[in-house]
Structure formats: C-alpha cells, structure tokens
Design a protein that fits this description.
Strands 2-1-3-4 form a four-stranded parallel sheet, covered by helices on one side. It has about 90 residues and is α/β, with parallel strands linked by helices. The chain contains four helices and four strands. The protein has a single domain, classed as Rossmann fold.
C-alpha cells in the first residue's frame, strides 16, 4: 500500500493540530498505516490538496475538491475519540 497523505487542519496550524497530529500518528502506527501527516491552518488547505488522501480538521473546511474531511474536535475533548480514530483508520485503509 502506498504512503497516505493526511492534512491535519486547525484555525492557526499550531496548537490544536499538534495535539490531533500526535493522536493520529499513534493510531496509524498501531494499525501499521504509513502516512505523511501535514499540519496546516485552514487558509492553507488549497495549497496542500494535490495528492492529499484525507483531511482531519478541528474547524470547518470548505473547497476540498472532493478530498474527504473528518471532523476531529473529539480528538481534543476525548468525547467520541475512538469513533473518530476508527473513521480515520477506515478512510486510510481503503
């Protein structure tokens, strides 16, 4: 399977995306999925879309040109976190 590319998006591309990136990286390692995780702010999304397989976001993202988006506020709050991780794993396993 080729290495996947995941955008981890928040409002500023710093604090919340770092927390989310760490949780996603741990889950992907656990499931043996190779991926490049790219943190960015929501305004940078258009410049990263080419070659992107999935967007995981803690904010509203539009104009994704068909790249699937998984809302990830749960990875910050802990409520429903495993459901979000499951969706990410499923999206990247297909």
């Amino acid at each position: 399977m080729r290495k996947k590319r995941v955008l981890v998006v928040c409002g500023t591309g710093i604090a919340t995306s770092t927390v989310v990136t760490e949780k996603i990286a741990a889950a992907l390692r656990e499931h043996g999925i190779a991926a490049d995780l790219i943190q960015c702010k929501v305004t940078e999304v258009p410049s990263y879309l080419e070659g992107t397989d999935l967007i995981v976001a803690t904010t509203v993202v539009t104009g994704t040109q068909g790249v699937p988006v998984i809302p990830a506020v749960s990875l910050l709050t802990g409520i429903g976190e495993q459901d979000v991780i499951k969706k990410i794993i499923e999206a990247l396993s297909s």
